[in-house]
Amino acid sequence: MLDLIREIGQAMRNNKLRTFLTGFAVTWGIFMLIILLGMARGVTNSFAERTSGDRSKRLNVYSGVTSKPYKGFKEGRWITPDVDDIERLKADNPDLVESVASYKYLGSTDIASVTDHISKSPEGVYPAEQEMYRIPMLYGRFINDADLRSLRKVMVIGTDDAKTLFGDAEKAVGQRVNAFGLSWLVTGVYDHEWLSDVYIPFTTAMAIGGTDGKVSNLQVKLKGMKTMEDADRATSEVRRSLARAHDYDESDESALYMHNRFSSYLRESQSFSILNMSIWIIGIFTLLSGIVGVSNIMFVSVRERTHEIGIRRAIGAKPRSVLLQVVLESVAITALFGYIGVFLGMTVMQLVDMAFGSSDFMRNPTIDISIAIEVTIVLVMAGALAGLFPALKATKVKPVEALRDE
Amino acid sequence: MIIGLKDINKTYPGAVPLHVLKGINLEIDKGELVSIMGASGSGKSTLLNILGILDTYDTGEYHLDGVLIKNLSENRAAELRNRMIGFVFQSFNLIGYKNALENVALPLFYQGVSRKKRNAMAMEQLERMGLADRAHHLPGELSGGQKQRVAIARSLITNPSIILADEPTGALDSKTSKDVMQVFRDLNSEGMTIVIVTHDPGVGQATGRVIRIADGIIQPS
Question: MacB-like periplasmic core domain: which residues (chain A) (predicted)?
Answer without folding.
Answer: 19-234
